[in-house]
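The pair is listed for reference:
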Amino acid sequence: MAEQVASNTVKLEEHDQRFNQIDERLDGIDSRLDKVDSRLDVIDGDLKIIKTDLGIIKQDLKRKVDYDEFMALVQRVVVLETRIAKS
Protein backbone atom coordinates (compact mmCIF):
# COMPACT_ATOMS: atom_id res chain seq x y z
CA MET A 1 0.00 0.00 0.00
CA ALA A 2 2.85 2.35 0.86
CA GLU A 3 4.47 1.63 -2.50
CA GLN A 4 1.21 2.47 -4.31
CA VAL A 5 0.89 5.75 -2.38
CA ALA A 6 4.51 6.61 -3.18
CA SER A 7 3.94 5.79 -6.85
CA ASN A 8 0.78 7.91 -6.93
CA THR A 9 2.60 10.76 -5.18
CA VAL A 10 5.32 10.69 -7.84
CA LYS A 11 2.70 10.72 -10.59
CA LEU A 12 0.89 13.62 -8.93
CA GLU A 13 4.14 15.58 -8.71
CA GLU A 14 4.79 14.93 -12.41
CA HIS A 15 1.27 16.10 -13.27
CA ASP A 16 1.72 19.14 -11.06
CA GLN A 17 4.93 20.04 -12.92
CA ARG A 18 3.17 19.61 -16.27
CA PHE A 19 0.28 21.81 -15.10
CA ASN A 20 2.76 24.46 -13.99
CA GLN A 21 4.39 24.37 -17.43
CA ILE A 22 0.98 24.64 -19.07
CA ASP A 23 0.14 27.61 -16.81
CA GLU A 24 3.38 29.35 -17.80
CA ARG A 25 2.66 28.78 -21.48
CA LEU A 26 -0.88 30.06 -21.08
CA ASP A 27 0.43 33.18 -19.31
CA GLY A 28 2.73 33.81 -22.29
CA ILE A 29 -0.13 33.30 -24.72
CA ASP A 30 -2.34 35.61 -22.67
CA SER A 31 0.24 38.41 -22.76
CA ARG A 32 0.65 37.97 -26.53
CA LEU A 33 -3.12 38.12 -26.97
CA ASP A 34 -3.19 41.36 -24.97
CA LYS A 35 -0.60 42.83 -27.35
CA VAL A 36 -2.58 41.67 -30.38
CA ASP A 37 -5.75 43.13 -28.88
CA SER A 38 -4.11 46.52 -28.35
CA ARG A 39 -2.77 46.46 -31.92
CA LEU A 40 -6.25 45.65 -33.22
CA ASP A 41 -7.62 48.63 -31.29
CA VAL A 42 -5.07 50.87 -33.03
CA ILE A 43 -5.92 49.36 -36.42
CA ASP A 44 -9.64 49.83 -35.73
CA GLY A 45 -9.09 53.50 -34.96
CA ASP A 46 -6.99 53.92 -38.11
CA LEU A 47 -9.68 52.24 -40.22
CA LYS A 48 -12.33 54.57 -38.84
CA ILE A 49 -10.18 57.56 -39.82
CA ILE A 50 -9.55 56.10 -43.28
CA LYS A 51 -13.29 55.49 -43.81
CA THR A 52 -14.06 59.06 -42.81
CA ASP A 53 -11.36 60.43 -45.11
CA LEU A 54 -12.59 58.29 -48.01
CA GLY A 55 -16.12 59.55 -47.45
CA ILE A 56 -14.89 63.15 -47.61
CA ILE A 57 -12.84 62.44 -50.75
CA LYS A 58 -15.82 60.70 -52.34
CA GLN A 59 -18.06 63.70 -51.69
CA ASP A 60 -15.41 66.09 -53.04
CA LEU A 61 -15.03 64.04 -56.20
CA LYS A 62 -18.79 64.06 -56.75
CA ARG A 63 -18.70 67.85 -56.71
CA LYS A 64 -15.84 68.13 -59.18
CA VAL A 65 -16.51 68.49 -62.89
CA ASP A 66 -15.32 65.90 -65.37
CA TYR A 67 -12.64 67.16 -67.82
CA ASP A 68 -14.89 66.52 -70.84
CA GLU A 69 -17.71 68.50 -69.22
CA PHE A 70 -15.27 71.31 -68.50
CA MET A 71 -14.08 71.41 -72.13
CA ALA A 72 -17.70 71.51 -73.34
CA LEU A 73 -18.34 74.43 -70.98
CA VAL A 74 -15.24 76.23 -72.27
CA GLN A 75 -16.49 75.86 -75.84
CA ARG A 76 -19.93 77.19 -74.89
CA VAL A 77 -18.35 80.20 -73.18
CA VAL A 78 -16.21 80.88 -76.26
CA VAL A 79 -19.34 80.80 -78.46
CA LEU A 80 -21.20 83.13 -76.09
CA GLU A 81 -18.23 85.53 -75.89
CA THR A 82 -18.07 85.56 -79.70
CA ARG A 83 -21.79 86.37 -79.95
CA ILE A 84 -21.47 89.14 -77.37
CA ALA A 85 -18.42 90.59 -79.12
CA LYS A 86 -20.35 90.72 -82.45
CA SER A 87 -23.33 92.44 -80.87
